[in-house]
Amino acid sequence: MAALLALVAGYNPAMHRPAVQVRAIGAQMADISAFGNVWGFEAKKAIFDKWDPEKPRDYDNFNPFERNDEGSMSDTNGCFPGQSRGYKSPIRPDQSWAIMQAEKLKMEELAKNPKFSIKGRPGNFSPSWQKDLKAPP
Question: Which of 8-12, 13-17, 33-37, 43-47 has the lowest mean pLDDT?
Answer without folding.
Answer: 13-17
